[in-house]
Specification:
alpha+beta; Immunoglobulin-like; 387 residues; 4-stranded mixed β-sheet; single chain; Glutaredoxin; 5-stranded mixed β-sheet
Length: 387
């Protein structure tokens, strides 16, 4: 009996030890030239950081930090000069970090965490953008005459650089909608005042990410903080910020792809003519049962949101006009129906890199593609946030 009790106690201790170890995360690394300097580990929330631990870099430039986690969380490692490296740690992860003390935060390698590698890519791309913007501002400073024609070219290049960075961030969000690294992407900044997604209309991305994360991480403190911040932004949102003014410089630059296709009557309808509406660009074919089924499912969504500014621009990849028209009439597709009738030689499918049907692209009122292949409730969730 006594031996049985002892065995039970040993088993409990083993299980407890396993549970504790599975909740630990460790960061090991090398900071070349950083011997005897201090590193701090801080938990990163939406609007604040919390000090977790600090360590001294060893004589051989190596360091090790351990922390206890119940869920995936964002962290920063900060050196004595205040430069930071952003990480997304999950329970049980063992991360390897390597950098140089002189390029801490701007040039580093991370292994053992795909999420942290995603953040590194975000940081790297933004650093490149900052460098391009700073170079353009130096050019401005070198021009004494404000009427110099080069000034207009520089302003245009500056605005286009801003637009490219924003589209990169949006693309990342679309591809990582259920990752907590998307929260980091939402809050990236050019400087202390200017966020990449800083205009009031960009709140749609915050809402959509929050909706997605609440399905996957409903109890995450980061998810809850994001939702609370969205509610705060809705109550007290700044009317204009510097980033919004810069984007207005390129107001004539449309995000719409140049696409003009005839409808069944031969009337050419351009995608850009629908600017101001939320558009679902839909590729389908009358020969495809799957795409017809998908379009039939879109009918209820179309009726629900059409009066609020939602339109479907359905591009049929067909080459037989009679079959195309029969399919439209039989299934009562009442949205905009167009076709080049040149399949498989379709310019539209090349522009959008479409290799299969059905394929859809959700385009916001400004002409930016914000999501791909949405149907049913997922599509309606997006529409609730951007219409």
């Amino acid at each position: 009996m006594k031996r049985g009790i002892q065995g039970t106690i040993v088993m409990i201790m083993m299980l407890t030890g396993f549970a504790c170890s599975s909740n630990k995360a460790e960061i090991k690394g090398i900071v070349s030239g950083g011997a005897d300097k201090t590193l701090t580990l801080e938990r990163l929330d939406v609007n604040r950081t919390t000090l977790i631990d600090s360590v001294l870099i060893r004589k051989d430039d190596s360091f090790s930090i351990k922390t206890q986690l119940d869920e995936a969380e964002l962290f920063v490692i900060k050196n004595q000069e205040g430069e930071i490296i952003n990480l997304l740690l999950s329970p049980g992860e063992d991360i390897r970090l390597s950098t140089d003390n002189n390029s801490f935060g701007t040039d580093y390698q991370v292994n053992g965490s795909d999420e942290s590698e995603g953040i590194r890519l975000l940081v790297d791309h933004l650093n490149q953008t900052r460098h391009e913007l700073d170079s353009l501002l130096l050019l401005v400073d070198s021009i004494e005459d404000p009427e110099n024609p080069q000034m207009g070219l520089i302003r245009s290049a500056y605005a286009q650089t801003i637009i490219k960075q924003k589209r990169f961030t949006i693309k990342y969000l679309i591809e990582h909608m259920t990752s907590l690294s998307s929260v980091y992407a939402l809050y990236q900044k050019y400087d202390e005042q200017s966020m990449i997604l800083g205009s009031e209309s960009d709140l749609q991305y915050f809402k959509t990410v929050a909706d997605s994360l609440e399905q996957v991480y409903p109890n995450s403190s980061l998810t809850k903080s994001l939702r609370a911040d969205i509610e705060q932004k809705e109550r007290e949102y700044l009317a204009e910020i510097k980033l919004n003014q810069l984007l207005e410089m390129a107001d004539e630059e449309s995000g719409f792809l140049k696409l003009t296709i005839p409808d069944r009557e031969g009337v050419e309808i351009s995608l850009s003519s629908l600017k101001g509406k939320v558009i679902l660009v839909t590729f389908w074919a009358s020969r495809s049962k799957e795409s017809i089924k998908a379009l039939l499912q879109l009918q209820s969504t179309y009726k629900k949101y059409h009066s609020s500014g939602f339109e479907i621009y359905a591009i049929s990849l067909d080459n037989n006009k009679i079959n195309w028209m029969k399919s439209i009439d039989f299934n009562e597709f009442e949205w905009i129906n167009v076709s080049e009738l040149s399949f498989p030689e379709s310019r539209a499918s090349l522009l959008y890199n479409v290799s299969a049907v059905p394929t859809t692209f959700l385009v916001n009122r400004e002409g930016d593609i914000v999501a791909k292949n949405l149907f049913g409730r997922n599509l309606e969730t997006w529409l609730d946030n951007i219409i």
